[in-house]
Amino acid sequence: MSNWQSPPPAGPYPFYPGQQGGYPQQNPGYPPNPGYPPNPGYPPNQGYPQGDYNSSYPPAPGFVPPGGNFGQGPPPPQPTSPPFGDQSQRGMYGASYSEDPQNDIKGFEFNDQSIRRGFIRKVYSILMCQLLITLGMIALFLYHKPTRNYVAHHQWLFWVAFAVTIVLLICMSCCSSVRRKAPMNFIFLFVFTGAEGFLLAFASSAYGREEVLMAVGITAAICFALTIFAFQTKWDFTGMHAALFVCLIVLMLFGMIAIFFPGKVMSLVYASLGALLFSMYLIYDTQMMMGGKHKYSLSPEEYIFAALNLYLDVVNIFLYILSIIGASRD
């Protein structure tokens, strides 16, 4: 029989002592349950304090709660600041990254600019060594008559040097491992420079000393002015590689046609177009080396390739200027 009953009807019913109304006493044969007495072995439960464990009972032997000793309040907060500094973290390669994205960008640009400046200095140092070697060989052929006569009677040296330049140029242009691994890249580059300097000296020996010196001076002035222009201008020439390549193909076809129609005017036009085209290539290669705001740029690992490109531009400008001077003197 259920102990729950509906409310009693109106009438006299016995109630619990001190009760002002409500339900009648149930099971009058049993005394009311006074409850269980507290266990004398444990202190009364005081509840769970905020952020701590139940401190009513002692912990088991060997149990250590995480975040501090037992019963001593909430665990201490974990440090949130990074271990490398105040609101900053050091990256894999030593770059500093802060919580402010603007500071991150500024630090990265500073590192990138430093690397690019070192790359430019290395490229121009290599280029100066190449030009000094080339100028030394040209001066040897111009001012040392026995050397010039010996090469004139052994023209097979010209073809050997020509084959060496073609093979090394293909290797350094097509094989990235050849132009990136030191010291093999320096060996290939300076062997190529020696062979190319020999070809230029052989070609210069067909002209007079004054003509060669004038061509050297004009080439130096043109290259210096174009380099300053490439560094200062806001125009981006790095996206003109397709147009420059098409102009180079047209110039090659024009040179083949000029072989069958020789003449002073044809030589002047061909040499002038060649000097103009490689002047544009000099600006293009200089901006490729600079990087930064330009659309395309060379990797800092390509210092040999960058020096090779600039050297070939200067050499071609010199040859076409020398051809213009020689054709105008005839």
Automatic annotation (TrEMBL):
* Keyword Membrane set for record: yes
UniProt keyword terms in alphabetical order: Membrane, Transmembrane, Transmembrane helix
Q: Where is the composition biased (Pro residues)?
A: 1-15, 29-43, 73-82
- Answer yes or no on keyword Membrane: yes
One GO CC term, this protein: membrane
**Intracellular or extracellular location(s):** Membrane
Q: Which residues, by range, are in coiled-coil regions?
A: none
Membrane-protein topology: Multi-pass membrane protein
Q: What is its main location?
A: membrane
> What species does this protein belong to?
Microctonus hyperodae (Parasitoid wasp)
Name the residues that span the membrane.
123-144, 156-174, 186-206, 212-231, 243-261, 267-284, 304-327
Instruction: Identify the stretch annotated as signal peptide in this record.
Output: none
Renumbered to this chain, region (Disordered) spans 1-100
Low complexity biased stretches: 16-28
Similarity-based family: Belongs to the BI1 family.
Protein name as it appears in the record: Protein lifeguard 1
